[in-house]
Amino acid sequence: KRCSEPHLAVGAMRMLWAIQAISLLCAMAAANVCDRNVTLKSQADVLDFAGNGCSRIRSLEIEGTVGHLSPLGGLTHLDGSLWIHDVPELVSLSGLENITTIGKDN
To answer: pLDDT value at position 93?
Structure first.
């Protein structure tokens, strides 16, 4: 029985390593940092961007024919700025309520 003890230790270490690797991947997926500036000029742009699942981006500019922002509910951090201009069809900022930080000091 003593011969099998090292194998148990190696097996336990492999299992621990696998659990740590999975935990790290899950944490990275939850953050989903998309290191880029985003400009949304149409409702199709909003839907396409929301499909990426980004929760953190550099900056966000919204202009043009955007009608609603509700698909952007997963966005939580802007490392730069938020610009909303020349958007006559936009009547609400609903969808941006989960943004907790804007700017470099976050």
So the answer is: 96
